[in-house]
Amino acid sequence: MVKVLYPGSFDPVHNGHMEVCATASRLFDHVVVAAMRNPQKSSPFFTDDERSEMLTEACQHLSNVEVVQFGELVVDLATRLEVDFILKGLRGSADFESELQMAQMNKSVGGVETLFLPSASENAFIASKYIRDITRFGTDCSHLVPESVAKRLREKMPK
To answer: Which of 25, 128, 132, 152 is an active site residue?
Structure first.
């Protein structure tokens, strides 16, 4: 049984993330999607619990996907969960450069290999930071996120 870990801040989860989840669900026996708070990013748009709930709702149709929260190094979580690989989605070359360096560090520190999945071109431009910005300005971007996330984004829009 091949088990992979797909970590991210998912603030919020969007269609690009869901593409990676769905692809991973087809390729691997078990997928653990791990929501974390990234200390390098500003304060989160959604709480840890909200992000986990949104991921759980969005992934409910994928029977081999499990959602967890974490607040430790990805390699420590990977070791604790006994996963075979860390999985990262790539939108473009800029993602590849930063993710490759992180993958090499994770391999050095924790011995865990990282696999990369490129996103389809229709999702390659989507980034959570853009969704947060668009929402803060009161513009709808529900076509970029799962419906359960769109509902929560509408609640955060200025009135």
So the answer is: 128
How many Cα atoms are found within 13 Å in the side-chain-facing hemisphere of 73?
12
**All domains of the chain in start order, with CATH:** 3-156 (3.40.50.620)
Active site residue 52: no
39 Cβ partners below 8 Å, 6+ apart?
A: none
- Give catalytic status of residue 61 as yes or no: no
Query: Active site residue: 41, 61, 151, 156, which one?
Result: 41
Give SS3 for 47.
coil
CB-based burial label for 80 (10 Å; 0-12, 13-18, 19+): exposed
- Catalytic residue, chosen from 9, 14, 17, 25, is 17
What pTM did the predictor assign?
A: 0.94
Asked if 9 is an active-site residue, the reply is: no
Task: Please report, in tens digits, the pLDDT of each residue of the chain (159 residues total).
Answer: 999 999 999 999 999 999 999 999 999 999 999 999 767 666 889 999 999 999 999 999 999 999 999 999 999 999 999 999 999 999 988 889 999 999 999 999 999 999 999 988 889 999 999 999 999 999 999 999 999 999 999 998 887
Q: Which of 3, 30, 37, 91 is catalytic?
A: 91
